Amino acid sequence: MTAKATSQATWEQDVLQAEGPVLVDFWAAWCGPCRMVAPVLDEIQSENPDKITILKLNVDENPDLAMKYQITSIPAMKVFQGGEVKTTIIGAKPKFALEQDLSAFLG
């Protein structure tokens, strides 16, 4: 896993005050589909380092943030830009589908 972790403590700086788009992967260690999507997100991050930042947020360790952003099933991914949610992606998807969902940010 190359995606950096974020938490309640670093959320404001990592996500809300970030320069460009930030995809937050809401996940948990026990979630099989979360483990399937992680390497795909790592690939997208490594291929687009200047376009998007991908962070992981463990929902078990950060339940307040999961509740605030209405995470009811995982994996869930939200793209933040300018401190606001711009896109929500629910469920594990193949790389091409994720890239389509993120095309506005990957350009």
From TrEMBL:
GO biological processes: cell redox homeostasis
List the residues marked with site Contributes to redox potential value. G32, P33
Which residues pair up as cystines?
C31-C34
Recorded GO cellular component terms are: cytosol
Q: Which GO terms describe its molecular function?
A: protein-disulfide reductase activity
- PROSITE patterns attached here? THIOREDOXIN_1, THIOREDOXIN_2
Q: Which InterPro entries match?
A: Thioredoxin, Thioredoxin-like_sf, Thioredoxin_CS, Thioredoxin_domain
What keywords sit in the KW lines? Disulfide bond, Electron transport, Redox-active center, Transport
Sites annotated Deprotonates C-terminal active site Cys: D25
An example Pfam family from this entry, by short name, is Thioredoxin
Annotated Thioredoxin domain residues: 1-107
Q: Which residues form the active site?
A: C31 (nucleophile), C34 (nucleophile)
Homology family? Belongs to the thioredoxin family.
Q: Which PANTHER family match?
A: GEO12009P1
Q: What is this protein called?
A: Thioredoxin
Organism, by scientific name, is Microbacterium azadirachtae
Designated gene of the protein: trxA_1
